[in-house]
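Quarterly update from the structural biology core.
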Amino acid sequence: MLLMPILRRPVCVSAQLLRPIPACGLLLALLCTAICHAEPPLTGPTAPQLAPLDKLLTSFVTDNKIPGVALAVTYKGKLVYARGCGFSDVEKQEPVQPTSLFRVASLSKPITATAILHLLERGKLKLEDPILKYLPELVPLSDAERAAHPWQKITIQHCLQHTGGWDRKVSFDPMFRPIMIGEALKIPPPPSANNIIRYMATKPLDFAPGERYAYSNFGYNILGRVIEQASGETYEQYVQKHVLRPVGIKSARLGKTPLKDRAPGEVLYYAADRTGPSVFAENLKQTVPSPYGVWCLESMDANGGWVLSAVDLVRFAAGLDEQSQKPLLKGSTRKLLIGSRPTGPAGFQEDGKPKSSFYGYGWQIRPLITPNHAHLWHHGALDGASTLMVHRDDNFNWVVLFNTGEKTKDKSPSVAIDSLMHVAVVSIKDWPQADLFSTIE
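Predicted structure, tokenized:
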């Protein structure tokens, strides 16, 4: 079927609202009140049989007052759908493109976990290794202090499965406390990922390692440093060289927080009217839009720092296909990932029965009846961003990236669209044979 690019009629915003104003949450409010046409712009190639996905995007953006979204879908390793909907820049009326760059937030975690598993394949580490083995410069300890330190019982596997002992609901999430940590360490904010580790090494754990599950951004910060120590390369260098480029990903980069450092082709992020104190030294504690300085993306590299297009991120997801032409992992390691159910309450119910889903090595995992088969997925969220990546066992993968995280009916955009995506994909019986990876970079 011939694929024809189309661009639908743009949302009309009154001239009064197009005056120069800061690219922040106010624009989202303007978008919500100034739409005079129901259909947002759609970019990228399409085909008649893909109408359910087109309809889902346009209706979801319109009904929920979403600035913009990009969606990419693969089937049997081919890119069969890649479209943008809405605006990457509301004020300038710039449509989202399939190749627009987005902060992917916690979809960075499957990338980091894959780098760890790649190092495992190369014999550079073991999952049962204590994390302190890889943090000698960040946590300098004598032999006696090391043996007594609570982190000595935390393994790489614990960090992968969020069972390391940190619970942000009990204490706090250090990745979002840069001013407090900078003041405690007497260094200019924001603290680096390494400095956050130095600070946290002096704090008690919230529970015993392995005791239970508690989602931990900080645990993945540590995994980034493990990658550096085990490989001898920076986190970004290793991931780019050994994880992303081998599967054809070209757009990936670690993001920057300030608006002035926005990458070419990167969307603007909208967070209603939320603001907060800047964590950067040049305008410390001055009020700024929440996506652009209330936290530090640079220090979140391994847990939430990547910026990619939906097209490139779905290449990553497709690399886990059992018959992938560019596999991310060896077959045995893929089985290890799918079977990465944690022990204890993190993976089992009180009666000892396995939970229907669990957090394994960088993914939420729902095992299927057939051994070594499972559906995998992950959500991501930051002020101004909401993201979803799905790897289905039936050869489908998709990535949905929003440039807002504003909730609709008490759900983030990525959560609200999740089940709708499954319904839309299942409804399509005739998928195009062309592979858009050959035409969309």
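Residues 109-245 form a domain with the Beta-lactamase fold (CATH 3.40.710.10).
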